[in-house]
Amino acid sequence: MLFGAIRSVFASRVSANHESPILLGVGFLLLVIAGIAAVGVFGWYRYVRARKRREALFAFAAAHGLEYSRDDPFGLTDYPFRLFSLGDGRGCKNVLSGRWEGLPVTEADYWYYEESTDSKGGTSRSYHRFSVVIAELELDAPSVSIGPESLLTRLADHLGFHDIEFESDEFNRRFRVKATDREFAFRLVDARLMQWMLEAEQGEAYELIGNRLLVSCDPLQPAGLSWLFDRAMAFRQHVPRLVWTEYGTGPRAGEQEERSAP
Fold first, then answer.
1. Which of 163, 162, 148, 180 is nearest to 80 (CA)?
2. pLDDT digits over 189-217, tens only?
3. C-alpha to C-alpha distance for 157 and 41, rounded to whole angstroms
4. Helix crossing, 2-17 with 21-63: angle to 10°?
5. Interatomic CA distance for residues 64 and 38, integer angstroms
6. CA atoms within 13 A on the CB side of 143
7. Measured between alpha carbons, how far is 131 from 144 in angstroms, rounded to an integer?
8. Of 27, 44, 50, 113, which has the fewest Cβ atoms less than 10 A away?
9. Could you tell me if residue 166 is left (phi over 0), alpha (psi between -120 and 50 degrees) or otherwise beta?
10. CA torsion angle for 129, 131, 136, 139 (degrees, to 10)?
11. What is the model's pLDDT at position 254?
12. What's the pTM?
């Protein structure tokens, strides 16, 4: 496409200005060479950047007792999170897995794209990228999502989730809560959890389905991933005791009740 445009420009100059076809041909060749060189440099830059990120993630994993995989060995995008249903295609790479302070976790670079077609039939893709952590909790919970009011959260409207309003006007202005079970949402998002989110939220979003908690945010550098893991830990610690009592599973549910009590 790029070279076709360049060829069209030179053809128009020959027709309009009667310039020497030989000179224009040389100029066209030089521009083609420059274009190829630019594409090569850009490709090399992307390769080097991706390699440095993989190396940094591997070092982070080794320092924190986690496993690193360049690809996604778990099929993470098959999990039924709303974020993993957006777009026309999606995937995960650079996956870390293991335990973070005893909490089973999986972290990944997640992306999805939206494909569009122009009037001439050409297609293009718009990519959206995130850092995500999936933590396993001792719960069997209905689906609920909590995140800042944004275009991203509005994209889930077609899924049939309903916005839920709480007693805190400030919380309602800053966050959007959707759930398949409104009563569960009211049990989960109590005054303590709302206060924590109002004080500590930095643009991340949460989804809880069954025994899995997804925490997502804009892409992070490897050095910043500790914050994302800590957010998953903190959310777990702010799950109300009532939720652990009614939805907790496994031998550690009772332990979590005590930890989450005010």
1. 180
2. 999 999 999 998 788 999 999 999 999 99
3. 41
4. 160
5. 39
6. 12
7. 20
8. 44
9. beta
10. -70
11. 46
12. 0.78
Three-state DSSP class for residue 141: strand
- φ/ψ of 110, rounded to 5, equals -110, 140
Q: Give the H/E segment covering residue 85.
A: none
pLDDT at 3 over 90: no
CA-based angle 143:130:227, to the nearest 5?
85
Structure tokens at 153: 């959260």
For residue 33, what are its two tokens? 């060479």
Q: CA-to-CA distance for 172 and 216, rounded, in angstroms?
A: 20
DSSP codes, 145-203: EEEESSHHHHTTGGGT-EE---S-HHHHHHEEEEES-HHHHHHHS-HHHHHHHHHH--S
Cβ atoms of residues 120 and 206 within 8 Å = no
Angle at 82 between CA 79 and CA 83, to 5 degrees: 90
Report residue 69: phi and psi, to 5°: -135, 130
Give the number of residues written for the chain: 262
**Would you say 170 and 185 are in contact if contact means Cβ atoms under 8 Å apart?**
no
pLDDT in tens, 126-163: 999 999 999 999 999 999 999 997 665 555 555 555 58
CA distances from 107 to 87, 96, 124, 216 (A): 20, 5, 29, 10
